[in-house]
Design goal:
Number of helices: 10
Order of helices and strands: EEEHEHEHEHEHHEEHEEEHEHH
Distance between the termini: 60 Å
Structural class: alpha/beta
Radius of gyration: 20 Å
Largest sheet: 6 strands, mixed
Shape: globular
């Protein structure tokens, strides 16, 4: 009996797979971790230098480049059955180039529900439906527990910085913005689109109670906290774990406990 699968990814691109993929390349760090937690570790043959969970993958798996630039010939040599990409993290040119080597599945994530859809899709593609459903349930339970312990009153207005010079913040139509809301905060740049460049004189910063400096993609440090604190002495400035706000795979199981710790500090 044929095992051919006809599926669509989150960009509604049609994909045909002749069999359950056994050799997988992930070009997205949060997806790499998700694959491991779905029980697919042995099937991951290539990943990026930014795929830091689990840490031992740096030496046990083949690194094929970054999220914006990859080594095409190294990928070709790995003979993947399926390459996993993301619309935001990978370029269109890269996806087109990779599509000439193997089937490419592209995710497009803005909300937790989008994440659940992706986990469910991977469960179907890789024949890991039970693992996928269990993972979704764990995240949903963590979310429900967090909501049950927190009132609907906001814990404050936030400006969430992702980059320095130019200064860039997370705004709407991003997974980060969705997670800011999940965490119980209001994004002062929530009416802007995507990742706008701003100046530190932007009047909306005056509206913020808290300034979050993300640990990624720009690695903000305590020196940056001091700089912001001197410029905005009335604000609560802190570095936050960017993985908890921007990794949309199994890391979400940990995110709500982290959000709880942030809310406790903001009270």
């Amino acid at each position: 009996m044929s095992q051919t699968m006809h599926i669509t990814d989150q960009l509604n691109r049609a994909i045909t797979l002749d069999k359950t993929p056994e050799r997988i390349i992930s070009v997205v760090p949060s997806i790499t971790e998700l694959l491991v937690d779905l029980g697919l570790e042995e099937h991951i043959v290539g990943l990026t230098k930014f795929c830091i969970h689990p840490e031992e993958f740096k030496t046990t798996k083949t690194v094929i480049g970054g999220t914006k630039q990859v080594k095409i010939e190294k990928i070709r040599a790995l003979q993947p059955d399926l390459i996993l990409c993301n619309k935001e993290e990978n370029t269109r040119e890269m996806i087109e180039e990779l599509s000439a080597i193997a089937a490419v599945h592209v995710s497009d994530i803005y909300t937790l529900e989008d994440s659940f859809d992706l986990i469910h899709a991977y469960g179907k593609i890789f024949k890991k439906q039970n693992n996928a459903q269990q993972l979704i349930m764990e995240i949903q339970q963590a979310r429900a527990a967090f909501r049950s312990q927190n009132s609907e009153v906001s814990s404050g207005k936030v400006a969430y910085f992702i980059w320095k010079e130019p200064w860039m913040v997370a705004a709407k139509q991003t997974f980060i913005d969705s997670m800011i809301t999940e965490a119980g905060f209001d994004n002062v740049f929530g009416k802007e689109q995507r990742y706008p460049e701003i100046s530190l004189q932007d009047p909306r910063l005056a509206m913020a109670d808290l300034i979050f400096l993300s640990s990624e993609p720009y690695p903000f440090k305590e020196t940056h906290v001091a700089t912001f604190q001197s410029k905005f002495p009335d604000k609560d400035v802190r570095i936050v774990n960017g993985e908890m706000f921007s990794w949309y795979g199994s890391r979400m199981r940990l995110a709500f406990d982290y959000f709880w710790s942030l809310k406790e500090k903001s009270v």
